[in-house]
Amino acid sequence: MQDLNWNDLRVFLAVARHGQIGRAARALKMDPTTLGRRLKRLEENLERRLFERTREGQVLTEAGEDLLARAEPMEHIARQIEDERTPEQGLSGTLRLSVSEGFGSQFLAPRMADLAERHPQLTLELVASSGFLSPSRREADIAVMLSRPKAGPVICRKLSDYRLKLYASADYLARHGEPRSAAELARDHRLVSYVPDLLYAPELNYLDDFHSGLSGHIRSSSINAQHRMVAAGAGVGVLPCFIADADRRLHAILPERRIERTFWIVTHRDTHKLARIVEGRRWLAAIVQAQRNVLLPPD
């Protein structure tokens, strides 16, 4: 057996976590063919099949599970060595943040420049989507989630509460009038909401919190799409205040009715002390504290 190549082990870890060669190649910024060759070379070197090829992708074999248990501690040590740099050298490597679509695209994205300018050698990846990558499976360094994980090798702490209200556009209100009660809202108005069976977190089931039995007439799995539909006059929708209050086309209706949700910072317990992850947590806490009135606007 030849000496193991650490880059081949990195390829193995990426495929194990992403479950597909294509996804692993995108994560490592590699050509899929090159990645496949390295994986094959590793299997030939070890004289073991590490993955079963299925229609859905790559599934670890027993030998692959054994190698994963051995390779992850090696990766952890390599990251610690990488982070033990002098202050003059600064942070490097990649910091991947997994956050909800609206929070990522409309709250964090406009503020990423500060972090990038302070750490020019650090590659920042903001994964803002309908769903979360898993810190417990090392898919993300930091996840900002809507609920505290109930299990897994993770460390979790509260980041911030945030507020949501009902909003409609001036154009919609001119055509349909402004509802004076939740019952009137349910009876006489068109509602914009999430697609119920596509909710990636139960905390996104907002309408019931305002009035039992409310149902959306126009639905989307995307909060950004809902925002645009409400702003264009499609109907009344529940939106985070940090999104809607920045849009002058929107007006809060039934303003005494509001709900709150919570953002949680989640990291893997084996990596939460790495310098770049500590800095990512610190940056998140700082901007949330500085923008508290945006997340929780005063009455």
Keywords:
299 residues, Arc Repressor Mutant, subunit A, D-Maltodextrin-Binding Protein, domain 2, 3 domains, 8-stranded mixed β-sheet, two-stranded antiparallel ribbon, 13 helices
Structural summary, described in words:
The protein has 299 residues and is α/β, with parallel strands linked by helices. It folds into 3 domains: 78 residues, Winged helix-like DNA-binding domain superfamily/Winged helix DNA-binding domain (Arc Repressor Mutant, subunit A, Orthogonal Bundle), CATH 1.10.10; 99 residues, Periplasmic binding protein-like II (D-Maltodextrin-Binding Protein, domain 2), CATH 3.40.190; 102 residues, Periplasmic binding protein-like II (D-Maltodextrin-Binding Protein, domain 2), CATH 3.40.190. Helices cover 41% and strands 24% of the residues. The protein has 13 helices and 10 strands. It has an 8-stranded mixed β-sheet with strand order 4-3-5-10-6-9-7-8. Strands 1-2 form a two-stranded antiparallel ribbon. A hairpin with a 4-residue loop joins strand 1 and strand 2. Helix 1 crosses helix 4. The model has no long low-confidence stretch (mean pLDDT 88).
